[in-house]
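Today's session is about reading a structure prediction critically. Students often jump straight to the picture, but the first step is always the sequence itself: look for stretches that repeat, for charged clusters, for runs of hydrophobic residues. Only then move on to the predicted structure, which in these notes is written as discrete structure tokens rather than atom positions. Here is the chain we will use throughout the hour.
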Amino acid sequence: MFKKIIKSYDYTIIITMVLLILFGLIMIYSASMVSAVQYYGEEHSDFFYKKQIKNILAAGFAFIVIALVPYKLFLNNKILVPMVFGSILVLGGIFFLGSVFGNAQSWYKFGTTSLQPAEFVKLSVIIYLSAIYSKKQAYINEFNRGVVPPLAYLVIVCALVTAQPDFGTAAIIFMIGATIILCSGMNGKNLFKLMLIGLGCIGLIVACMSLAGKSVFTEKQMARIFVFMDSPFAEDVVLKSGYHMSNSLIAIGSGGLQGLGLGQGVQKLGYLTDGHTDFIMAVIAEELGVFGVGFVIIGISYIVLRGIYTGLKCKDPFGSLLAIGISSMIGIQAFINIGGVSGLIPLTGVPVPFISYGGSSLLQLAIGMGILVNVSMFVKYERVYKNKEETVVEIPKKTTNRFARSNRSSY
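Below is the predicted structure for this chain, in token form.
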């Protein structure tokens, strides 16, 4: 049985994930070898490279453990309830014990190590909403009983992350929740009600803050919106709020089809100081061109589409929603980063899945991928092995004469 389980894992997803992480490790070194010394004041140019190796080892261990744990274990209230209340407490505590980085109070500092709890809350939202809506399938179309109660957790989490302020992560969490709700099986009438309620709440918040004389967005966030609406190359913008955006576009334009060559990028030499995190796709475009960017997009797209396929094939509502939720998280985050770096949408400061530097992001992705491949394993095992075992009927090749005689004597 153990051999059949091992054979049932989707190794194409695992191999794709490993290739993306290793590719990201190479690009992290290339993008940070100058800024690590000049901008961050580190002694060695491979500072972020070595830290990412440690992050990869921790993430790899977490992935293996979670991939071997049956995903249905997360349906247990002994795990689900502490996870929900714990995530709220951790997000709330960050306003008293958290550290500010990038104009957002989003981190806990433990010596030289930092932890961003909002990254793990993404998984908490996926697991909670998937578990609750899978349990409510019998009355999923009853609005007050089957639809509304789980939304309280989603609203609280989004509000706490927004208050940090981290609109990018809050938007990702909201869209993940919306995807799970959309796929939960509720009818269009309830979905339309939720949309109207959501728009009404947003309008009420904006109106209240306007009356109080407060802006919904911080000054830096408003600047990013203005850069998006205007040109980042405008004379009064390029040296202020449009500095990073303009250098990102220069890097992308300089790369062309083939790129300048690995390690030969110019914008990472003090222009894109966050080249190993938020703007790593710009460095990839400059050094490896369309081929490098295409490798990342194709790899992430394969994982997302394969995850959605797993969700559609899974007969268990909980497993199906988990697979779709994790896939949507990866796809949404990748789109927001690549869209922001290329100027398609305003910058939000979120990492590229599997590629950007960051321990919190990589660890939660490893846990999510562990859950995803565990769901895919159960789907394949039930389809290939379990169904065969249930349909096998042993038919004797030849009846004995004694049986034939006893059969005739019975008539």
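Discussion point for the tutorial: The longest strand covers residues 104-110.
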